[in-house]
Design goal:
The protein is mainly alpha-helical. The protein is built from eleven helices and four strands; from the N terminus they run E-E-H-H-H-H-E-E-H-H-H-H-H-H-H. InterPro entries: DnaJ-related_N (IPR021059), DnaJ_domain (IPR001623), J_dom_sf (IPR036869).
Length: about 230
């Protein structure tokens, strides 16, 4: 892991079994840091831009290798998204606003007064707030999980750069028929049904669960990007 805090990388700072604990401390530090820089999210910022900013002085939170090796890339991405989802919950509770989190654009939609309504459920938030997913994802399975993420980091993928085959494959994973409308509600409904069957905590297949998360992320990003055009 190539996250750096106090000049200690996860690969050097501690034993293998302690890296998850160190990563949690890194994520907490980042959440606190980002809370003091809410202006970064006013106009929206991509995950790539955010990571690049945190790599540079005066922050120096990620070293230059953070995006070059697949496992390090996944762990960097996971730490960032964990911090963002923690911040989303924090700002919702404080009445600051809603932090919309997507790899292409992370935006703070401010509110004038606190909301008493609970924050809506989100399968992706549940995934990134579970450190078991960080610990259980190793070199053997990270390549398949990150196929589309490599494209996002290199080319800032958008709905019109996703191929028909990629969309069709994601539909197949979520058991969405070709003629079924592609809406956020439909995607979420199929995801929840399938993740309940395949979740490792319920005796399911971890690889299948990760495919579901990947397909869910791809299709929801696709639908949201399409709606903004």
């Amino acid at each position: 892991m190539t996250v750096i805090v106090a000049n200690a990388t996860l690969t050097k700072c501690c034993a293998e079994g302690e890296r998850g604990i160190h990563a949690q401390n890194v994520a907490l530090f980042i959440a606190d840091l980002l809370e003091d820089h809410s202006q970064w999210f006013a106009a929206g910022v991509s995950e790539y831009t955010l990571i690049a900013r945190l790599q540079k002085a005066p922050y120096n939170l990620f070293d230059k290798e953070a995006l070059r090796e697949s496992l390090a890339l996944f762990q960097t991405h996971f730490v960032i998204f964990h911090a963002l989802y923690q911040l989303q919950l924090r700002w919702h509770a404080q009445g600051v606003g809603h932090l919309a989190i997507h790899t292409l654009k992370i935006t703070l939609h401010e509110t004038s007064e606190p909301s008493s309504a609970p924050i809506p459920s989100d399968p992706l938030r549940d995934y990134y707030l579970n450190w078991g997913n960080f610990d259980e994802t190793g070199k053997d399975d990270v390549e398949a999980l990150l196929d589309d993420f490599w494209q996002r980091m290199g080319g800032h993928i958008s709905h019109d750069t996703l191929s028909t085959q990629e969309i069709a494959k994601a539909r197949q994973v979520l058991e969405l028929s070709a003629d079924e409308p592609l809406t956020l509600g439909t995607i979420k409904r199929h995801y929840r049904r399938l993740i309940h069957q395949h979740h490792p905590d319920k005796g399911g297949d971890p690889a299948a669960a990760k495919q579901l998360v990947r397909a869910y992320s791809m299709l929801t990003d696709y639908v949201r990007a399409s709606a903004q055009d």
